[in-house]
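Reviewers asked in the last cycle whether our approach scales beyond single polypeptides. To address this, we selected a multi-component target totalling 458 residues and predicted its structure end to end. The input consisted of the following lines:
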Amino acid sequence: MAGAPSIEEVIEDFNVLKCMQCGVCSGSCPSGRQASLNVRRLVRKIGRDHAAISDESLWMCTTCYNCQERCPRGIAIVDAILAVRSIAAHEGLILERHRQVANLLQEHGHAVPIDDAHKEKRMQLGLNSLPSTVHSHPDDLKDVKLLLASCGFGDITGGKE
Amino acid sequence: MMKISLFLGCLVPNRYPGIEKATGICLESLGIDWKELEGASCCPAPGVFRSFDEPTWLALASRNITLSETDERDVLTICNGCYGSLADANLKLKNNPVLKEQTNSHLSQIGRHFDGTIDVRHIIEFLYSEIGVQKIKETIVRQLDLKVALHYGCHMLKPSSNRATASVEHPSVFDELVEVLGCTSVDYPDKMECCGAGGGVRSALGETALAITEHKLGKIEGADVDCIVEACPFCHMQFDAGQVSLAEKGREFGIPVIHYSQLLALSLGYSPEDVGINLNEMDCSDFCNLLNELKKD
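The resulting structure, written as structure tokens, was:
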């Protein structure tokens, strides 16, 4: 099942063309201060063509929502960025580190699974070495894997080698 | 009495278990009917997984929610990321019949069904609106004379269209919960700014995340506080492990980081070691000594 929208749907659904390029978004962006992300320019790019999907700055957004909260035109900027990211991901444009995190989820049901050092910390605190999550429930982990397979998640993220 | 199931997520049990321990202590002491949400998975993390594929994000989030629906309990989160993911997914599925049907067709593969019968809560808004500052004041056994820099984090409050909390730009909910414990919440520039970790930035673009963190820590440093208090293990990790990374580059801050559950547990008479403040990545021994001194007073 195709999980990503088209760029036209993103433009329509999130009011991208209402942008008047005022720059409140980039003035509110904590990432823009430190990295090459320019939200104002990115919104314009999304509104113009498909090329936005390969813009590296898409992945510099921390999703803090400052821009979306303050946009005087009510554009759902972060939601639009997330949707464009999903188009990119469906076209295979996923950063290597993100692919690794996706593999952890598929293997363990956790993006950050337990390790020996933290089992030790848990026991120091008097907790069970494994938490009550999927880590202690293999049947639940099986369900998570079935669900990921049903969504075709492994195909989208390139799966495990 | 409201019944809740505690959603642990990934970072609390697997990286900062002191927060798990402290949260249990707090819920128990406040007389809340709670249990852990057994068999839960990653929420899944919104920045990475929602970015890749919304149907997968909704399917996994809804599985976690249906576990709690079966128990007829609201989900309590202790992480802004888990809250953002589960609360936003819950609302989307409640409000959009097409997405709900699509998600339920995935869930049918594992014999589950999303009904939309419960809510997702964040510990800060839950304590504030369901328990109340007054009840907390009556329950704690000691005041903590600490100057703290509060960090709300982003997804507790935003997107505001999906949140019950009042103000995004100038909230006071968290400040009130901290000050009732005897702490002073010190104002500082960029208090409402992001820690830098979210949106998958920490996982793939660590240097960008760290630059945002360094900016924020610089503002906190100027406020001359005893510690940072947050209510999100991802922010916790970004400030804690981030300070270790920054120290390696020669930028030393030395500002301890604690989750609100840990702070509240200290007010309930527990020691810093009981709730794992000594288990942060950065050395917190001076801070633990200070807390143990306070305990004697």
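Chain B touches chain A through 66 residues (CB under 8 Å). We regard this as preliminary and will revisit it once experimental data from Aim 1 are available.
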